[in-house]
Amino acid sequence: MPIVRVEMWPGRTQAQKAELARVITEAVVTIAHTTPESTIVIFEDVERENWAVAGVLASQPP
């Protein structure tokens, strides 16, 4: 059973997450030769203050 975890900043709509879940599931089914029913997509919204890029918190001004 494939599990795909998507971590991103908050702000995406339910519709955007639904579309992401659909296309991610399609890709996993096609490439990993599995079924939609056995594919799990987990979305986790991570606040900018808990995310760093190149050693700098995303919540800090540039």
Q: Report how far apart the termini are.
A: 41 Å
What is the average of the pLDDT values?
A: 96
Radius of gyration: 15 Å
Largest sheet: 2 strands, parallel
The proportion of residues in beta strands is 25-35%
Order of helices and strands: EHEEE
How many helical elements?
Answer: 1
Could you give me the name of the CATH homologous superfamily? Macrophage Migration Inhibitory Factor
> What is the share of helical residues?
25-40%
Give the number of domains.
Answer: 1
CATH class descriptor name: Alpha Beta
Give me the side-by-side strand order of the main sheet. 1-2
Please report the total strand number as a whole number: 4
Structural class: alpha+beta
Fold-level CATH name: Macrophage Migration Inhibitory Factor
- Shape descriptor reads elongated
What would you say this structure looks like, in words?
The chain has 62 residues and is of the alpha+beta class. The chain has a single domain, classed as 2-Layer Sandwich (Macrophage Migration Inhibitory Factor), CATH 3.30.429. Helices cover 31% and strands 26% of the residues. The chain is built from 1 helix and 4 strands. The strands form 2 sheets. A two-stranded parallel sheet has the order 1-2. A hairpin with a 2-residue loop joins β3 and β4. The radius of gyration is 15 Å and the shape is elongated. The model has no long low-confidence stretch (mean pLDDT 96).
